[in-house]
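Quick one, T. Sequence first:
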Amino acid sequence: MARNRAVDDWPGNKPGWCVKSIYRILPGYIEASFNQNSLELSGPRGSLSVDISLLKTSVVSLRGWRWSCLVLTQLDGNSLRLAGVSNDNASTLAKYLSQTIADLLLFQYQQLGRSARDALKALDALAVCTRYLRRADWERWFSLYQHLSPFFTRFDRHYFFGKCSWYEPRFYVLERIFAEGKAFCRKHNDAFVAEEMARYSVLFDSIESRPLTPSQRQACVQDEVANLILAGAGTGKTSVMVAKAGYLLASGLAQADEILLLAFGKDAAQELSERIQKNLKDGTVVVKTFHGLGRDIVTAVDGKKIKVSKLATNEESKVAFVTKALRELVAEDANRKLLLECLILLTLAPECASSELSKALKSSDEKALITTKNMQPITTIFANLLPHYKASGISQKAFSERLIQFESHELNKRLFKLFLPVYKAYNEQLKVSGEIDFTDMIQQATQYLTRGRYKSRFRYILVDEFQDISVDRVSLIQALLKQVRGASLFAVGDDWQAIYRFAGSDVAVTRRFESYFGESTQSVLDTTFRFNNQIAIVAARFVQRNPQQIKKEITSSDYVEANAVYIVPTADEVEALNATLTRISKIKPKIPKRLLILARYSHLLEAVREVPAYDNLLIETMTIHASKGREADFVIVLGLTADKLGFPARQSDSALIRVVLPEEEIFPFAEERRLFYVALTRAKQQIYLLSNIKAPSVFVDEVAAYENVSVLKLPRQKKKSES
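Structure tokens:
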């Protein structure tokens, strides 16, 4: 017969009470112990702890021939079985356990009032009913109050709530939140974005010359800590920047002077400023270049106007300074020998044997070797390296270690040793003249922000052409965001158009956006208003051959049936250019057309000087890099050959430069492929690729296989001597 060893009566609401019952189970005993939070079961085979809040209140007795089994059911449907209870005691014990669980649950519910009120108060602080719920804030709240979830999701919760004096109808929101779990944040934001898009539809319809697309409106309304907007070519990135500022003002999320728009160049900043003033009619929204912002911060902290060195603004002046510094260095024997070794290694094999180098040194004519012309390759490398080396912040030791991985190490280690005193002279020159360079602007501004010497007021930071960001500018943005509680980043860019690695831009920041800026949203502006669907298909297919490019679908607002990308094979590029221009001029001849002639290198555009004028063609020429942000009805691309100065470019930077530039991508010609994409997407109607018939570019060979690309054989043009 089962033996009840000890039973304590219900102790009311006294904290720390405990009820114990011990029952015989063959071949020993099982002990059930209750406290405020759990049921502890122990016996010969081990012990088990069960959270009371996870148990149903009904304990069922299953009667056997001599012994019964008690079944405790959990909310998730799993059950615990206590076997070996005598039939005489099973029913009584089941009722006792059921009542005890119910009493303990009620006791726990009565203690929830303060925590529940705190949870609601914290929700109110997040303004969850009136604004976008940021994921980091939500997850912080959820982790603090997740312990309430079992009590607000139980099927019998309203029975217990009815016995709690603290419960009010407003606590229903917690029931909803815990029922949906972590999905609540996503569902709330989806609904909020839809409501805001409808509420501000008039603003989004009229703020720009063309009503914003749904994807543009969604990007404006989302308000995560960090927001990445992938704006494909011609998808209206400037429009969405202006509209975002307009929405922030209209919704009251920010005052005008709390909004900062950042651009990389003066022209882009000027365009943004003009669009802001025209469409928002509010001149207090701040539009700056990164350098302009850095200058403002440094000036404010130092209390004096800073002067930008000519060495930073004029490439010829910088090269002249490096040349002069090198000439002063060779006055010392050790430096002169080092320079001679570098010049000899540049002409001999860069890794020639020490004996061969020594022999060349002994027989060398110093005066004949150390000339401005001979030093030009070195001065060019050093002039390019100066800003990158400073911006990288790399130590001399780390730099030297990284150099080892590149070929021509014997030459490179001597060049770096020669560079260091030039770099020192450069910084001393800035100090003596009381001037600053662009890298100093960014780095000093970041330091002042980090150390709290400058206080930012910007709650919303909007960055244009984000794919061109460099690591030092990332640090500046991070410092700005940390200055203001709840500050948000709105970054608009396109990893498909990242073409400035040589200037320090790092496309990896866009690809790994969240690792740099925390919880984020990612939106795609998916409709282009520039080029037609035929160009869109070819350009997207081409650029996405690189698996590291972020996948996205870009559709065109302009649909045409005929192919719009043409390959023109030729052995005479000037002749093919003339034939192509003649063809284009005959397309709707009475309508003026804008036309861009592009090339990978500026010297390839010299052939355009021989091109005749056409009354209905407005022709501009420029490099593909310079064409970024431009558009024309028709585009012609020159220089599509497979040689060293062709496209894609096959010459690489000096190892000294490569050490401090962002890491190179694995995919072959990754950046050159993006540059070709930029060329393709400048054209609104048609693009012509003039391809060298003897050594065609690998890019031309690739797109020639696309069904949306046509190969043209244009009629031969008569030369002046033949007419």
